Structure formats: structure tokens, C-alpha cells
Amino acid sequence: MIKPDIIEKLGLFNNSELNIFSVYLGSDSIKAPSSGFLRTQFHSLLHRDMDSVSRHTYAHDIHNITRYLDGYIPSARTIALFSSGDRLWEQASLEYSLPIGITLGNSPYLKPILGSLDHYSKYIVLLVDREKLRIFTVDQGEMVDHSEVLDDSVPQVSKSTGMEFAVGKSDVNQRHNDLLLQRHIDLLAKSIVRFNNKERVKFVIIGGHSELFKKVYASLPPGIRSKVAGTFVTEVNIPLSDIMKKSKLVAAQVS
User: Fold this and answer.
1) Which of 34, 40, 61, 127 is placed for a possible disulfide with 21 were both Cys, Cβ 3.0 to 4.6 Å?
2) How far is residue 242's CA from residue 146's CA, in Å, rounded to a whole number?
3) What parts of the chain have a pLDDT lower than 50?
């Protein structure tokens, strides 16, 4: 993720007297590219984007970047590196793809990153079934699970034993379950409002059991309801990586 302080720090070098080497490396694949892949890609770009004179001028920076790639542990789809001798070294990791390439100049080449910050806006993913709530934020392609901040006393829907039919209590139990379910959904709605006020998200995605989507949607205040961008059907207790994949498919249609 690109932190604001990195952007601010790099902005101090705009129109400087330095020769600044900016390089973007990465892959369109969902999987983070390996160190070997990035090294090969980098050396291909050196010959594609630079002549021999430029490679000599920026030899120190090329050495710094090569050394960094030698020890790189795959963690992101795109990495951006900014170097100028011993005066500047910054790197940023992004969980989405940007065009690869090398740019030379007196300023760090930040246009791809700055453009992407608007495109990859922060959004909320919420998952709900009759017994569990999960809530996530996604920012610049990185997902964070906030489920632990939800109330631990989420009411659970009663399980049927079959005995209620014998004693004529099925209607009572159904009304009780419906009440608990509505409390369950209202808790989720309040959490979304809190996150929206704090995080200022661009849109909301609802996932989980499809029969609950309309109930969740109706429980949201109008300001949040207007931000619901789509839904996807899933079990709630799935790995974070699977939630990310499913939500990205919906988010791609929004972005």
C-alpha cells in the first residue's frame, strides 16, 4: 500500500537537481511475481527504455535496484522503486497492476500511482448469514478484516429440534428467530455506518447468503444504501483470499 508520507516525501524531489531513476515492475497475474521474474523483467526494461549512455549514468541506481530485487520476497503485484545515488531511495508495493517501465528525469515519476489512488478507492465488504457477521475494508487492493470489532453478543438464531411442532410453538420460535435475525442485521448496519464515517468509503459490497441481501439493504440508512455497488453469494467462513477474489470481481465492474 502507498502511504501518504511516501508520496509527500517523494514530492519534495520534484524538479530537483538530481537524476532520478523511477521503475515500475510487476505482473497482471493475481499472484505476486517472484524475485527472479522481476529481475528478468528489470533487465529487459534496461535495454528497452535506456541507451548505453543512460545505463552508464545511472549505473549506481541500477546496482541498488538489482541488489534489492535479489533479496525481494514476493508480496505485491506491482512494485515501484525510486533511486538517485545515495540521495534518494524509496520503494512502494501495490496490490494491483500498473504499467511497467523505466522513467528518467529530475522528478520521481508518480503519475501511475497518483492516478491509481482515485481508481482503487477504499470500499467495504460485508458478509452475513443467519449466525455470523464479517466486515472488511479494501484500500488500494489490500483487504483488512475488522470482524473483531463487531459485538461479541450477536444473537444466534435458534436451532429446530422438531419438538416445537409437537407443542405448537413453531410460530413463536419463528417470530423469535426473525427478531434475532433483524437484531443481527441491524448490528451490521450500525457497524457499516461507523466505518463509513471513519473511513469515508466509496462503495459497499454485500456478500453471504442471498436471501438476506434485501434485509441488509433495507436496514441501511439512505446515504449508505446508495453506495451499495453489488452483491456476491458465498459462505461466510471462507479464507480472506477467496473473499478478496470474489469482491474484486464486483469492484471491477464499479471501477
Assistant:
1) 61
2) 16
3) 152-167
Residues 73 and 70: their CA atoms lie apart, in Å, by 9
What is residue 170's predicted lDDT score, i.e. its pLDDT?
Answer: 59
**What is the chain's alpha carbon radius of gyration, rounded to the nearest angstrom?**
24
pLDDT at 247: 87
Residue with cell 491509481: 116
Is residue 206 within a helix (H) or strand (E), and if so which, with residue range? Answer: strand 203-208
CB-based contact 46:102 (threshold 8 Å): yes
Beta carbons within 10 angstroms of residue 98's beta carbon: 18
Q: What angle do CA 1, 148, 177 make, to 5 degrees?
A: 130
Q: Provide the β-strand partners of residue 134.
A: 127
**Which of 150-170 are b and which e, b meaning 16 or more Cβ less than 10 Å from the residue's Cβ?**
beeeebebeeeeeeeeeeeee
| C-beta of residue 228 within 8 angstroms of C-beta of residue 203 | yes
Q: Which amino acid, residue 203?
A: F
Question: How many other CB atoms are there within 10 angstroms of residue 129's CB atom?
Answer: 19
Would you call 219 helix, strand, or coil by DSSP? helix
The per-residue DSSP string of 125-185 comes to: EEEE-SS-EEEEEEETTEEEE-GGGS-TTPPPPPPP-SHHHHTT-HHHHHHHHHHHHHHHH
